[in-house]
Amino acid sequence: MTPAGADWRALASHVPATVLLSGTTVLWASADLRRLVLADSSSLVGSDVLDLLVERDRRRARSALAEALRRPGERLGPLRVRPLARPRLRVEVVARAQAGDHLVLAAWDVSARVAAERELRHRAAHDVLTGLPNRALLADRWERSRARARTDPGLRTFVLLCDVDGLKEVNDGYGHRAGDALLVQVAHRLAAEVRPGDTVARLGGDEFVVLVDAVPAAHVEDLARRLRRTLLQAQEGVRARLSVGWAADDRTRTTEAVLAEADERMYEDKRAHRGVSDGWP
């Protein structure tokens, strides 16, 4: 069926990717719209336009289309198009009501914008060098852990503060590129030692934090021992190691106070093995 009237033609002249609907049934689709979703006219006309979307976006889109019949210019999106139509395609849509239950939709590909926004959010919450959560994301996850503990008093949260001994010597002797490689190695080692639900974060410099909950204190002590035994190959013939201190979050103190206790224990650990080069415990 060919759409009638001047409004849809005016819209289509400015935004080539357009489609005419009756309810949610496709009556007509422009060539640019067909190219956008990688579909031909025979497969689109007569189909439900919502079938182009991933299932989780369909209810929201259906409600927005119904609202568009009452409010011209309703904007939808970004909406995720099904992978079979086109992988990772995100579209933004403006709907304009026509006679009866007819709607004209104009669609834009906003995949690049959505990906850029996602990358910005990731960078805001993660350390650029190691890819680990940064201080801001650690604070958010710690607060979530505290919120869970308020509904489950038996849940205990522990914080381990880890400091890389030998990083300064590596930076001074081999350059900051070697030091950065050491920090990345630390990130991988820490991530390998914890459970999938635990958080490993980089505070900055040579300091890392491990946040674990729903475990007994004995588990944390064992984890701290394993981390202390970790020998890091910084350069040929040069080894670094981790000093580790931990503290329990009883939720009666600020997170800063809990970190301060872990920091004090970490420096006790550092003093205990200072000057030891091999056979570290």
Automatic annotation (TrEMBL):
<dbReference type="InterPro" id="IPR035965">
    <property type="entry name" value="PAS-like_dom_sf"/>
</dbReference>
<dbReference type="InterPro" id="IPR052155">
    <property type="entry name" value="Biofilm_reg_signaling"/>
</dbReference>
<dbReference type="InterPro" id="IPR029787">
    <property type="entry name" value="Nucleotide_cyclase"/>
</dbReference>
<protein>
    <submittedName>
        <fullName>Diguanylate cyclase (GGDEF)-like protein</fullName>
    </submittedName>
</protein>
<dbReference type="InterPro" id="IPR000160">
    <property type="entry name" value="GGDEF_dom"/>
</dbReference>
<dbReference type="Pfam" id="PF00990">
    <property type="entry name" value="GGDEF"/>
</dbReference>
<dbReference type="InterPro" id="IPR043128">
    <property type="entry name" value="Rev_trsase/Diguanyl_cyclase"/>
</dbReference>
<feature type="domain" description="GGDEF">
    <location>
        <begin position="155"/>
        <end position="281"/>
    </location>
</feature>
